[in-house]
Amino acid sequence: MSSLSTPASHRADHGGPGPLLVILDPAAKQADGESVRVAKDVLCGGADVKVALPESPSELDRVLSHRGRRRPVVIGADPALQRVLQALHRQRELGTDPVGVVPVGRPVATGALRALGVPVEPVAAARAVLAGTPRKLDLLVDDGGGVVLAEVRIAPLRPGDGLSRSGGLRSLWAKFAAAEQGKSSVNGPVVELRVEADGRLLADLHQRVRLLRVAPADGVLELTLRLDGHTHRHRVASLTVTGRHFGYEADGAPVGPVRARTWTVHAGAWELMLPAG
Q1: Is 274 in contact with 135 (CB distance < 8 Å)?
Q2: N or C, fewer C-beta in 10 Å, the chain?
Q3: CB half-sphere exposure, 197, CA atoms < 13 A
Q4: What is the pLDDT of residues 181-229, one digit of tens each?
Q5: Residue of 89, 101, 83 lying closest to 35 (CA atoms)
Q6: Which CATH architecture has domain 152-267?
Q7: Exposure of 231 in the CB half-sphere (CA atoms within 13 A)
Q8: Ranges for all domains in the chain classified under CATH 2.60.200
Q9: Where are the alpha helices (DSSP H) in the chain?
Q10: What is d(CA 17, CA 49) in angstroms, rounded to the nearest whole number?
Q11: 15 pLDDT exceeds 60?
Q12: Which parts of the chain are beta strand (E)?
């Protein structure tokens, strides 16, 4: 288990960003060690910084629960920020302090961060952490304790979909879902789901779902549902999906298979440091 490491600390001037806990995702160092080094240099040059490299969920919980007054800053891709927000949500600490993030990883792994307005370049992102403006954001939370930054997407695999958007082999849930759910039709594959929003039935198992997408927006869920050539859009407070077995993508990362999942939106649940103005 890695312990909290303390590099040469740089005390911020009066009125500065305050002390920071920089949570470094081990995958970020492997993906782009130079960007990690640059981000750490900028952050350490402008604040009192401690760096942690948690290697398990339990270690991440421990590091966050003992952070004191230090504001959490993530160096890594979308999943790294997801894990931190999920841990803060479990600890009932979500929204206590603004969170900063420096994206490090391949473009497909940082799409949610870019969509939220986080600068891609490490120096600009680190400066936003130090001198940016906190912005309140909504968060999708599911009944399994997971959190989603940008969107949930359910769509059946087409024949030949052997690669995920990250370029690697699709996980077992995707292969299983394709075998169990993928149906052939002249309009492409479909998936059999029961979709309910705010207690109202939107699609039943006998209908052919070609796409389901949900994203947080202005305190509600924006739902896009494509059924047999017709696209329906709804703004709802909660969404429940059930099916035989289905997998889904949360911010591009595969989850499942599951038999049922409910998502709700937590309006203004957290704050993200973004460039001023």
Answers
A1: yes
A2: C
A3: 18
A4: 444 445 445 678 999 999 999 999 988 889 999 999 999 999 999 987 7
A5: 101
A6: Sandwich (2.60)
A7: 7
A8: 152-267
A9: 26-31, 33-46, 57-65, 78-90, 111-115, 122-131, 172-181
A10: 10
A11: no
A12: 20-24, 49-52, 71-76, 100-103, 133-142, 147-148, 152-154, 193-197, 200-203, 209-217, 220-227, 230-236, 238-250, 253-274
Contact residues for 118 (Cβ-Cβ < 8 A; gap 6+): 101, 103, 125, 128, 272, 274
Mean pLDDT over 126-139 rounds to 95
> Taking a C-beta distance cutoff of 8 angstroms, is the pair 258, 246 a contact?
yes
Q: Where in the chain is the domain with CATH 3.40.50.10330?
A: 20-131
- Amino acid at the residue 86: Q
The predicted pLDDT at position 28 comes to 92
* β-pair partners for 270: 137
Closest alpha carbon to 75 in 54, 46, 45: 54
**Strand ordering across the sheet containing 20-24:** 49-52, 20-24, 71-76, 100-103
pLDDT at 268: 93
Q: In this predicted structure, what is the pLDDT of residue 276?
A: 87
CATH superfamily of 20-131: Probable inorganic polyphosphate/atp-NAD kinase; domain 1 (3.40.50.10330)
- Comparing 15-29, 55-69, 117-131, the range with the smallest average pLDDT is 15-29
**pTM (predicted TM-score):** 0.80
